[in-house]
């Protein structure tokens, strides 16, 4: 839980009383490799902080999986279009490797916002970060060539790229695995 508290402190100051509230509201969760935190048709009921591990977000389009995001240690995981209005999602969130996480429900998050002195500020700053990241990804998907998307992937996920199966990376970039191999080969010969 100390990693969770330090992450929150990176956004806002916390008193000892705030830390005690956090310790009561968040619950530890162990997620096995390939286990889903969320599946299409479900309602996202938790915001999750990853202490150790890696997850991916994906959905199906034209019958094929499309990976569109990865979250690693120190990241927050949630599908807000389902979580906030409490409506079923079309998104899947799956552990790529065994993951240790801390979760908070919607109702407990509202208590967090009310009782932690800078809780609402933390929520705003977190959502701003998520929003900027998603807008950047969507823009890249429509404006960048696959090679550029792969280069952006390597920069964004530098420390974890070797932990992600190549077919997930290919899906994220928007190409078939064979095309990703060619892109990787071309990029490696440039350096």
Automatic annotation (TrEMBL):
Q: Name one Pfam family in it.
A: cNMP_binding
Q: Which SUPFAM superfamilies match?
A: cAMP-binding domain-like
Ranges for domain Cyclic nucleotide-binding come to 31-114
Highest taxon listed in the record's lineage: Bacteria
**Name assigned to this protein:** CRP-like cAMP-binding protein
Tell me what organism the protein belongs to. Answer: Mucilaginibacter frigoritolerans
